[in-house]
C-alpha cells in the first residue's frame, strides 16, 4: 500500500526527535499512529539526495514478500520526489528532494540487543525459544523465499509477544534464483563483528547469514556482546 508523505509527517509529528524509536547509519525509525489507531514503525531512508532507487525498490519488494510469523508485517511505503530550485553564486541549480520510507508493524518490546548482556533478563527457556524462532525465520528466508538477509544482528531482531523474534530491516538483503545461494557485489555494507569475512570482499551467500547467526547465538548464550560499527564502502 502506498502512503503519502503528508500523512507520514502528520503521524510522526513531522519526524520529530520525540518520535524516534531507532536509528542506524542508513535510516531513522519513527513511531507513528495511523488514523485507524494502528501503531506503526516508519523507516525513513537517510541521504535523500543520493538514495539508490533500485536498492529502495528491492527493500520494499523483499519486505512485502517475507510474510512470516518471524518477520515484521509490511504496512506500506512512500516514494515522494519534489523538484527544488537553488541559486548558488549566480548559477541556477535544479535538484530532486527525494523521500523514501517503509512502514511495518510496531513491536513495543524492543530489540534483542537490549535483552542480552549484563542487564539481560532472559532465562534459558526464553533464549531457546528466541533462537528457535530466529532459525525458523531464517530458514523461511533462505529456503522458501531465496533471500539472503545480509545484516543479521541482535539490533535487527525485534521481540514480539511471548518472546517471538521478528526479523526486520531488509535494506541489505538480496534475492537469488533457484539453484543459486551466493553472489558478488561492489556495494559492501554490513556490521563489523557480525559480517562474515568474505562479505568484506563483496562475496555474499546464505552461509554469510549462518556466520552472523552463529555470532548472535554465542552472544545470546554467553551474555557477551560483540557488536561493531556499520560498514559502507565501494570496491
UniProtKB/TrEMBL annotation:
Protein kinase domain boundaries: 15-235
Keywords, in A-Z order: ATP-binding, Kinase, Membrane, Nucleotide-binding, Serine/threonine-protein kinase, Transferase, Transmembrane, Transmembrane helix
Transmembrane spans: 20-42
Organism domain of life: Eukaryota
Any Pfam family: Pkinase
GO MF, one example: protein serine/threonine kinase activity
Coiled coil: none
InterPro entries documented for this protein: Kinase-like_dom_sf, Prot_kinase_dom, Protein_kinase_ATP_BS, Ser/Thr_kinase_AS
Positions contributing to ATP binding: 44
Entries under Gene3D superfamilies matching the protein: Phosphorylase Kinase, domain 1 (3.30.200.20), Transferase(Phosphotransferase) domain 1 (1.10.510.10)
PANTHER family attached to this UniProt entry: C2 CALCIUM/LIPID-BINDING PLANT PHOSPHORIBOSYLTRANSFERASE FAMILY PROTEIN (PTHR45707), PROTEIN KINASE DOMAIN-CONTAINING PROTEIN (PTHR45707:SF51)
Family: Belongs to the protein kinase superfamily.
Protein name: Protein kinase domain-containing protein
Species per Swiss-Prot/TrEMBL record: Triticum aestivum (Wheat)
Amino acid at each position: 500500500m502506498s502512503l503519502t508523505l503528508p500523512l507520514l509527517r502528520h503521524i510522526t509529528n513531522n519526524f520529530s526527535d520525540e518520535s524516534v524509536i531507532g536509528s542506524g547509519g542508513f535510516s531513522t525509525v519513527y513511531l507513528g499512529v495511523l488514523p485507524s489507531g494502528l501503531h506503526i514503525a516508519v523507516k525513513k531512508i537517510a541521504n535523500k539526495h543520493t538514495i539508490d532507487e533500485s536498492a529502495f525498490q528491492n527493500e520494499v519488494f523483499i519486505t512485502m514478500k517475507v510474510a512470516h510469523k518471524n518477520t515484521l508485517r509490511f504496512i506500506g511505503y512512500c516514494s515522494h520526489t519534489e523538484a527544488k530550485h537553488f541559486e548558488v553564486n549566480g548559477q541556477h541549480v535544479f535538484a530532486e528532494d527525494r523521500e523514501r520510507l517503509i512502514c511495518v508493524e510496531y513491536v513495543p518490546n524492543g530489540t534483542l540487543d537490549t535483552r542480552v548482556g549484563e542487564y539481560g533478563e532472559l532465562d534459558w527457556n526464553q533464549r531457546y525459544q528466541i533462537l528457535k524462532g530466529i532459525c525458523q525465520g531464517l530458514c523461511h528466508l533462505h529456503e522458501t523465499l531465496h533471500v539472503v538477509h545480509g545484516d543479521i544482528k541482535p539490533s535487527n531482531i525485534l521481540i514480539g509477544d511471548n518472546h517471538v523474534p521478528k526479523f526486520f530491516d531488509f535494506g541489505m538483503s538480496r534475492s537469488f534464483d533457484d539453484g543459486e545461494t551466493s553472489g558478488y557485489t561492489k556495494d559492501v555494507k554490513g556490521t563489523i563483528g557480525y559480517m562474515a569475512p568474505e562479505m568484506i570482499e563483496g562475496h555474499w551467500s546464505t552461509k554469510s547469514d549462518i556466520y552472523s547467526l552463529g555470532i548472535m547465538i554465542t552472544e545470546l548464550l554467553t551474555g557477551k556482546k560483540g557488536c561493531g560499527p556499520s560498514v559502507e564502502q565501494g570496491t
